[in-house]
Amino acid sequence: MFDLKDDIPSYQKLMRPVLKSAENGPRKISEVVEEISDELDLSSDQREILLPSGKQTVIANRIHWARSYLKQAGLVKNTQRGWFELTDTGLLALKDSTNEIDVKYLERYESFQEFRQRSNKTDDLEVSDATADKDETPDEQIEDALKRWNKTLSASLLKATQEASPAFFEQLIVELLIGMGYGGSSENAGRALGKSGDNGIDGVIDQDPLGVDQIYIQAKRYASENVVGSGDIRDFFGALSIHKATKGIFVTTSKFTASAKDTTKALGGRIVLIDGERLANLMITYGIGCRQKSVVRLMELDETFFDEV
Fold first, then answer.
1. What CA–CA distance (Å, rounded) separates 199 from 236?
2. What is the average pLDDT score of the chain?
3. Residue 120 gets which letter from DSSP?
4. What is the CATH number of the domain that holds 232?
5. CB neighbourhood size of 3 (10 A)
């Protein structure tokens, strides 16, 4: 599957364009981002792709890291906040068109070697620098690692949920929806109906203190290969009609067939579908069935703090 990020060069590939952008004098980094984006003929969609954190675009992040590494090697220097210029060393590197300017190339400079040595030490102990030469920026590496962690956690949560009892699963769904804010602040807003059920309903959440407005729940704890079909959707819709309910949430640990999704749309959007993948992601987001292991506060050097105004 084509990814819009595929045509955005890595931060190492952007080192020479960043140097070239300042060939004729000091440059403002935000303007360089736009200029290089134009030179690469990036589409508006590609220019707007954000890191998973949502704090910066991918192209801006990569250009900023390219400049940062060039600065560590002494090829550029900051002139004022948000501005940089080439050093004599940087100009010489740029003039040699045979040079592929990347991390390996920068290692020839003593200042960059010292930077790498500082980066590889924690409390004077040598640590592995396995990610230093990757094409992803440090921000992207961290966020990719978090994505892989959550993917593994998601699979574990789904497996544990599939192995739980039906009654436990129904209560889990109620707790999740309450955690998501359904039912307001009432402690007794949600309840599972247990083995007996109630005309095809597995749980209910009161949207107001008197229970006048309610959301009905259908919960199917299925193995991954046992998908939910259109017949299950129609049965649930019938149960909602018996209760004169306007809203229903159908949750499964497996998947919905295409016909099940089409049937849901044809019924006017009264039913929301949550499959196993979405269920696991919601459990992670709202801390249901998982707990916070640690909080990492990442700090970075504020180069502009040390720039002269």
1. 9
2. 85
3. T
4. 3.40.1350.10
5. 8
